[in-house]
Write a structure and sequence with these properties.
Radius of gyration of chain B: 14 Å
Helix content of chain B: 10-25%
CATH superfamily of chain B: Folate-binding superfamily
CATH topology of chain B: Folate-binding fold
Shape of chain A: globular
Helix content of chain A: 25-40%
Number of domains of chain A: 2
Number of helices of chain A: 10
CATH architecture of chain B: 2-Layer Sandwich
Number of strands of chain A: 19
Shape of chain B: globular
Number of strands of chain B: 6
Oligomer: heterodimer
Number of helices of chain B: 2
Distance between the termini of chain B: 21 Å
CATH topology of the largest domain in chain A: FAD/NAD(P)-binding domain
Structural class of chain B: alpha+beta
Distance between the termini of chain A: 47 Å
Structural class of chain A: alpha+beta
Radius of gyration of chain A: 21 Å
CATH class of chain B: Alpha Beta
Chain lengths: ~425, ~100
């Protein structure tokens, strides 16, 4: 590999591997149409080809490839959830993550940093202990640690007791990681295209009609398409697209904001999360602190940034890392999160035959990209719901069988 | 959307309010479970003009906000009695 790099480095005319071929005309029919060209949709396309040999697939993206929540998340990957269904699902995702860069031939900068969820109250400690026990029972590396260990793992955290919310302990999850989110989408897109799958950007679905026992007709801004099977993966716009297909979802669209600091000397090794202080932060390979907080206080379909968010986030950041008081924020942005009542995703069948949904990814979707793409591909290929995602079906709400992940999926509760 | 004009307290900072979700009809007590599941869990989650319950926290006062979820504009704030009286004159669904 290094020799090959050297060879290309000296070659004047080397153009590199083309990631995205020119736009092609849209065909009239496809076996499978995936609505949404984000990480999830592209992963589903990739696994349809690689696992099931299905290449008559079109991915429709209304904007640019991976320009939605795939590019807006804070790139944290972990499996220390609360319910067995959640833990097993995300653990499978982490297993796929570890070999993904090699499989896709792209540097994902997958970096296992360790993940600390700080507890500042008895209630938070109790939830951490609960999560640690569920995790250990299912073979996940996860444990409750005290203040001494936190000081060793992350000496930069302010462990003073003379603050509003002193740190009492933490849930420590050594395999917690971060990855380069854009590269994930590009890698899957390139892999899918190599198998002949078409990716159409600037192609927006404007209407959906299903024919009894048969195909599904999609109206787009570039003409209509007939699809044998449809997978909807449009986090943020899930309710609007589902409305076109004729059903309702248990989702509120709420903005989630995040920001990065200017690049700083590397000082923060683990990913640090605090539910009570509503923050999560990691330091990227470039040295920027990637920071996020709680979702906005009301539903909205706008990706504007607010001062309320950054003020509150910084006040809490400074409680944990007082030495950052002169650090500057480089940029701030928002994504639209699909918030579900139980803080778990919605994957699987819908009331429309052969129309499958991948939604409800709230603030926890990026880490699930490989496993979700793979499970949705299996569902689209076989028509059968894989065991790994059975608990997350839309129907669970009709049966009052929620998968309660609030204590592990969100900050600000 | 930084100031909300509360029908009881006048214009106040938006941080003093909480959103209580869209205005919708509660099913009858003996309605089928799927009607209740729909009421409890499913959302219209419309991109556009919606009618919602909002509460001014300091005074525990609930009222109706009509706002646009795409542009983040508040179109109207009304007392509940005023809002529901208006509904009776139209189609009763709250849609405009």
């Amino acid at each position: 590999m290094p020799l090959a790099l050297l060879k290309y480095g000296f070659r004047r005319k080397y153009k590199g591997d083309k990631y995205f071929p020119e736009a092609r005309p849209l065909r009239d029919t496809y076996d499978v149409v995936i609505i949404g060209g984000g990480g999830h949709g592209l992963a589903c396309a990739y696994y349809l080809a690689s696992d099931w040999g299905i290449a008559d697939v079109a991915v429709l993206e209304k904007g640019w490839l991976a320009s939605g929540n795939t590019a807006r998340n804070t790139a944290i990957i972990r499996a220390n959830y609360l319910t067995p269904a959640g833990v097993l699902f995300y653990e499978e995702s982490m297993r796929l993550w570890r070999s993904l860069a090699g499989e896709l031939g792209i540097n994902l900068m997958y970096s296992e940093r360790g993940h600390l969820t700080l507890a500042h109250s008895d209630a938070a400690l109790r939830t951490s202990r609960w999560r640690a026990e569920v995790n250990k029972h299912l073979g996940i590396d996860s444990e409750l640690v005290g203040r001494d260990e936190i000081a060793k793992l992350c000496p930069e955290i302010n462990l003073s007791e003379e603050v509003r919310y002193p740190v009492l302990g933490a849930l420590y999850h050594p395999p917690g990681a971060i990855a380069r989110h854009d590269a994930v989408a590009w890698g899957y897109a390139r892999g899918a295209m190599h198998s002949g799958i078409e990716i159409h950007q600037q192609t927006e679905v404007t209407g959906i009609k299903s024919h009894v026992g048969g195909s599904i007709e999609l109206e787009t801004n570039r003409g209509s398409i007939t699809a044998g099977t449809v997978v909807q993966a449009v986090a943020g716009m899930s309710s609007e697209v589902a409305r076109m297909a004729g059903f309702k979802l248990p989702i509120r669209s709420i903005p989630l904001q995040a920001c990065v600091s200017e690049p700083l000397k590397p000082f923060l090794d683990p990913i640090v999360v605090s539910g009570s202080l509503h923050i999560y932060v990691s330091q990227s390979a470039r040295g920027e602190l990637v920071m996020g907080g709680a979702t906005d206080p009301y539903p909205l379909y706008s990706t504007r940034s607010t001062l309320d968010f950054s003020e509150r986030l910084m006040a809490n950041m400074l409680e944990l890392f007082p030495f950052l008081e002169n650090a500057k924020v480089l940029r701030q942005w928002a994504g639209i999160a699909d918030m579900t009542p139980d803080f778990s995703p919605v994957m699987g069948m819908t009331p429309v035959s052969k129309y499958y949904i991948d939604a409800g990814w709230g603030t926890w979707g990026f880490k699930a990209t490989p496993v979700c793409g793979r499970c949705m591909a299996e569902l689209a290929a076989t028509g059968k719901v894989p065991d790994l995602i059975r608990s997350f079906e839309l129907e669970r709400f009709g049966r009052m069988e929620q998968v309660g992940e609030r204590g592990a999926a969100a900050v600000g509760h | 959307m930084k100031i909300i004009d509360c029908p009881l307290n006048g214009p106040r900072n938006a941080q003093e309010f909480v959103c209580g979700g869209e205005v919708r009809q509660e099913p009858s007590q003996d309605a089928a479970i799927d009607k209740w599941a729909d009421f409890v869990f499913l959302e219209n989650n419309l991109q556009g003009v919606v009618h919602e319950w909002w509460c001014h926290v300091a005074t525990s006062y609930w009222f109706i906000v009509t706002r646009n979820t795409a542009t983040e504009e508040i179109i109207a704030t009304r007392r509940p009695d005023e809002f529901f009286a208006g509904l009776k004159q139209t189609d009763g669904t709250g849609s405009e």
